[in-house]
Specification:
It is built from 26 helices and 22 strands. It is α/β, with parallel strands linked by helices. Helix 16 packs parallel to helix 18 and helix 23 packs across helix 24. Its cofactor is Mg(2+). It comes from Methylobacterium thuringiense.
C-alpha cells in the first residue's frame, strides 16, 4: 500500500508544526504518533523509549490500547522491539507473527496485527528507543516508508535526548541520559569528579527540518566538494590529519570521502526533507550504530575515519572551525577526547582541570606522561567516549582503576567523593613525610628521585621532598613544539631546569624519539616494528648533528655545575663509547671557544635492551652510572608489546624471570662499583619497589605522586628481612612463578603500606 501523498517531506513539515505547539510533552508525543500513522497509512504507531534500567517502555501509541502507555515494559532483548534496539537496524515484516522473536503483551491488544515495521531511535550511534508501525493486513512496507520512518526517528531521538520526556515517567530517561560505567586502561592515578568538557565539541545540529529541499541539496553538494578537495590536498602534501597520521590513513579517509554509497544515503536523507547537516548527522549515526556492533576490530577502527569525515562536513555546513577550544575551563572540568597530544593538554588552564578521558592512548603514551606529571587523573581506551556523554554531563574519572562513571547515580557519586576525601587525607600524611629521610628500619638509605620532562614538573621537588631529578625526558620539549627547537631554545630550557633544581642532582636523558614518539615536524619512517627500529641513541649516532646540538646545549647550560647525561636504548657497549666520544668532542669545542664547562660530567647508559644483560660487567666498567628502564626492559625481555592489551598482562614484573634479571643488574653493578637507579614504572609502585630493595637497588626515580607511598613503605621495612624473603622465594620459583602473593602476604603481616 503506498504512502500518503507528500511522503516524508509533508510528514516532517507537520512534525515541525507539532513540535512548536504549546502543549505538554505527552500531548506532543501523542500528536506525533497520530501524524506518523496517517502518513504511513498504518493502523498502529508506537514509540518505545529505553529507560535507565535498560527496559523499553511504551511512551505513546496510536492504535494500541492507550491504557498500556507507561505500563507496558519490555526487556531490552525481548520481542521484535528488543531485537531492533539491540541490532540498531530497521526491521520490516509482512507477517510479524511468523518471526521467531515475535511476542506480544496482552494489555496492548497487538495480537491482531501482522505487518510490522520498526526503526531504532538513534543519536550518535546510541539506541534511545524504537519507533514501530503495524497493520492488520499482510503488507510490505515500501523503501520510501522505511526512509520516512527513519527520518522521523531522528527527530524523535533529539526530542528524547533533550530530556523533554523525562517527566513523563519517574526514572525514565534514555540511553543518552542514563548512567554509564566504562572500563579502559589507567593512564594517571587519582580520582576526579567534575563535568564533561569535550576537547573537540560534538557539533549539535539544531535545524533538523528543511524549509525547502533544493537549497539543502546544493549546500550538501558544495560541502562534499570542499571537503573532498581539502582531503585531496592533504594527501598530495602528505600532511597528517590532526596528529600526523600516516599516508595510509589519509588514503583511507579519501576513499570514504569518495564512497558513492555514503554520499547517496546523505542525498536521500536530504530529499526526505532533512537539512543538509541533519542528513549528515543521521547517516553517520546509522553508520556508528552498525560499526559499533562489529566484531572485526579493523571495521570498528574505521568508525574514526567516518567520524572525522562527518565532522568535517558538519563544520563546513555550520561554519565551525576545526578543533576544540582551549584555554579557560569551567570549574571541575573533565576533558573528554578521541585523542589528544601533550601540547593540546598543556594549552588548557590546569587550575580547573580535574581529569582526562581518551578513546585512544596507552599508559606509556605521551599524553599519559604529561597527565602524570601534572597530577591529573586520566583513563585511556574508553570505547566511543566522545559519543557517551555531552558537554556538562557529570562524570567521574578513576585513574587508578581505569574506569569512568558518566552521569553517575547519587550513591556512586557519594562513594567516589568519599574515596577522594580518603585520598586527600592520605596525601596529607605523605606530605608530613616530606622532610623525613627515606631510611629503612635497619638504617639502609634509599634515594627517591623524580621523573620529569617539563618545567612544571620541577615544582614537585619541594612538594615531595625528592632528592633530585633521576630522569629528565628531553623529548617532551621537542614533542610539544611546532618546529625543531634551536640550540639556543634547548639551552634556555636546560638552564631553567638547573635554576629550578639548585644544588640537587639532575640526570638528563638525551633525545628518545622514534618508535611511538614521532615529532610532528619530522618525516615519519614506516617500519614493520617501530619499537625495535630506528629510535633513541640509534638516531643520535646515525644523525650526529642532532645529538651534537643537544649535547652542546646541555654542556653550555651546565657550565660551572655538575651534570649527569644518560643515553637511551643502548644495545651494545660500542654504542655507548661512540656517544661518549661525541660528548668529549663537544667538550673540546667549548673549551677552545672559552665556554665554562661543567664541574663534573658523568655519562650513563639506560639498561632497557636485554643484550646489555650479557655485557653488564663491560657496560658497568665503561659507564659512570646505569639506569634501569624497566618499561622497555620488560617489554623486550618477554617479547610483549606493553601497548597491546591482548598480551600486556601476560607477564608479571615480579615473576621469577624478571626478578633474576633485576638481581643480575644490581649484583654486577655493585661488584663493579657502578651506581644504578631504577627509573621505570615499577620503581614507583610500593610492592615492586620493596622487591627491588630486597634485590639490592638503593635508588629510584618515579612520578611525583609515587614518592609519598614509596617512602611510607621504605620507612616500615627492614631491607635485610626483605632480601632474605626474596632469596628464599626465588629459590623456590623454578617455574617462573610470580613472587607477588608471597610479597603481598609479607607486607600484610608486617603492616607495610603497599
Amino acid at each position: 500500500m503506498p504512502a500518503a501523498p507528500g511522503g516524508p517531506r509533508l510528514l516532517l513539515r507537520r512534525l515541525r508544526e507539532a513540535m512548536a505547539e504549546p502543549v505538554s510533552a505527552q500531548a506532543r508525543l501523542d500528536r506525533i504518533v497520530v501524524l506518523i500513522a496517517a502518513n504511513v497509512i498504518a493502523e498502529v504507531c508506537s514509540v518505545y523509549v529505553l529507560r535507565d534500567d535498560n527496559t523499553l517502555e511504551l511512551f505513546a501509541t496510536e492504535g494500541l490500547n492507550r491504557e498500556a502507555v507507561h505500563i507496558t515494559r519490555l526487556r531490552a532483548d525481548e520481542g521484535l522491539v528488543g531485537l531492533i534496539a539491540n541490532q540498531a537496524e530497521p526491521l520490516s515484516l509482512s507477517d510479524a507473527q511468523s518471526h521467531p522473536n515475535f511476542s506480544y503483551r496482552p494489555e496492548t491488544g497487538e495480537e491482531i496485527y501482522h505487518a510490522f515495521l520498526g526503526v531504532p531511535l538513534l543519536r550518535a550511534g546510541n539506541t534511545l528507543g524504537v519507533l514501530v508501525v503495524q497493520n492488520k493486513t499482510y503488507r510490505v512496507y515500501s523503501d520510501e516508508e522505511i526512509e520516512a520512518l527513519q527520518t522521523t526517528a531522528m527527530v524523535l531521538a533529539e526530542m528524547i535526548a533533550s530530556g523533554e520526556l523525562q517527566a513523563l515517567a519517574p526514572g525514565a530517561g534514555s540511553a543518552a541520559r542514563r548512567p554509564v560505567s566504562q572500563r579502559g586502561v589507567p593512564l594517571a592515578d587519582g580520582i576526579g569528579l567534575g563535568h564533561v568538557v569535550l576537547h573537540e565539541p560534538r557539533i549539535v545540529v539544531k535545524r533538523l527540518i528543511a524549509e525547502s529541499v533544493e537549497p539543502e541539496v546544493v549546500r550538501l553538494e558544495e560541502a562534499i566538494e570542499d571537503v573532498r578537495s581539502a582531503i585531496d590536498e592533504l594527501v598530495e602534501r602528505g600532511d597528517g590529519i590532526g596528529s600526523n597520521e600516516s599516508r595510509e590513513v589519509l588514503e583511507t579517509v579519501r576513499m570514504f570521502a569518495h564512497d558513492k554509497g555514503w554520499l547517496r544515503r546523505m542525498r536521500e536523507a536530504v530529499q526526505s526533507g532533512l537539512t543538509a547537516e541533519a542528513a549528515v548527522e543521521r547517516v553517520q549515526s546509522d553508520n556508528r550504530a552498525r560499526m559499533m556492533r562489529q566484531s572485526d576490530p579493523y571495521l570498528r577502527d574505521r568508525l574514526h575515519d567516518l567520524d572525522d569525515l562527518a565532522n568535517r562536513l558538519l563544520r563546513r555546513l555550520i561554519g565551525h572551525e576545526a578543533g576544540g577550544g582551549t584555554g579557560a575551563l569551567p570549574e571541575n572540568a573533565i576533558l573528554v577526547a578521541r585523542s589528544m597530544g601533550p601540547a593540546a593538554l598543556l594549552d588548557y588552564d590546569r587550575a580547573n582541570l580535574r581529569g582526562v578521558v581518551l578513546e585512544e592512548g596507552g599508559p606509556t603514551s605521551h599524553i599519559a606522561i604529561v597527565a602524570r606529571a601534572l597530577g591529573i587523573p586520566a583513563v585511556g581506551e574508553i570505547a566511543n567516549a566522545t559519543a557517551l556523554c555531552d558537554s556538562g554531563d557529570a562524570i567521574i574519572v578513576d585513574g587508578g582503576a581505569g574506569e569512568i562513571q558518566v552521569r553517575p547515580s547519587p550513591e556512586i557519586e557519594s562513594a567516589y567523593a568519599e574515596q577522594a576525601r580518603l585520598r586527600a587525607r592520605r596525601q596529607e600524611q605523605y606530605r608530613a613525610l616530606r622532610d623525613v629521610p627515606a631510611t629503612t628500619r635497619d638504617k639502609v638509605r634509599i634515594g627517591l628521585h623524580l621523573n620529569a620532562g617539563l618545567l612544571i614538573d620541577l615544582s614537585h621537588l619541594a612538594e615531595t621532598g625528592a632528592e633530585g631529578i633521576g630522569l629528565f625526558r628531553t623529548e617532551l620539549q621537542f614533542m610539544v613544539a611546532q618546529r625543531m627547537p634551536s640550540a639556543a631554545e634547548q639551552q634556555t630550557l636546560y638552564e631553567a631546569v638547573f635554576a629550578a633544581t639548585g644544588d640537587l642532582p639532575v640526570t638528563i636523558r638525551t633525545l628518545d624519539i622514534g618508535g611511538d614518539k614521532i615529532l610532528p615536524y619530522m618525516p615519519s619512517l614506516e617500519e614493520e616494528n617501530p619499537a625495535l627500529g630506528w629510535r633513541a641513541i640509534r638516531i643520535g649516532l646515525d644523525r650526529p648533528a642532532l645529538l651534537r646540538v643537544q649535547l652542546r646545549a646541555l654542556l653550555k647550560a651546565a657550565g660551572g655545575r655538575a651534570i649527569k647525561i644518560m643515553f637511551p636504548m643502548v644495545a651494545t657497549v660500542e654504542e655507548f663509547t661512540r656517544a661518549r666520544g661525541i660528548v668529549e668532542r663537544e667538550k673540546a669545542h667549548l673549551r677552545r671557544h672559552g665556554y665554562p664547562l661543567p664541574t663534573d660530567c658523568k655519562l650513563g647508559a639506560m639498561v632497557e635492551v636485554p643484550s646489555l644483560l650479557f655485557q653488564i660487567d663491560e657496560i658497568a666498567r665503561e659507564a659512570d652510572f646505569l639506569s634501569v628502564g624497566s618499561n622497555d626492559l620488560m617489554q623486550f625481555l618477554f617479547a610483549v608489546d606493553r601497548e597491546n592489551r591482548r598480551v600486556a598482562d601476560r607477564f608479571d614484573p615480579l615473576c621469577g624471570a624478571a626478578m633474576r634479571a633485576f638481581r643480575l643488574i644490581a649484583d654486577r653493578a655493585e661488584a663493579m662499583g657502578c651506581p644504578v637507579t631504577v627509573c621505570g614504572e615499577i620503581g614507583g609502585r610500593p610492592l615492586e619497589a620493596m622487591a627491588l630493595i630486597g634485590l639490592g637497588f638503593r635508588n629510584f626515580s618515579m612520578s611525583p605522586a609515587s614518592i609519598g607511598p614509596v617512602k611510607a613503605m621504605v620507612l616500615s621495612i627492614e631491607a635485610e628481612e626483605v632480601r632474605a624473603l626474596i632469596e628464599a622465594e626465588l629459590a623456590k620459583a623454578t617455574d617462573g612463578a610470580s613472587l607477588r602473593p608471597a610479597l603481598t602476604a609479607f607486607a600484610k603481616a608486617k603492616g607495610v603500606p603497599i
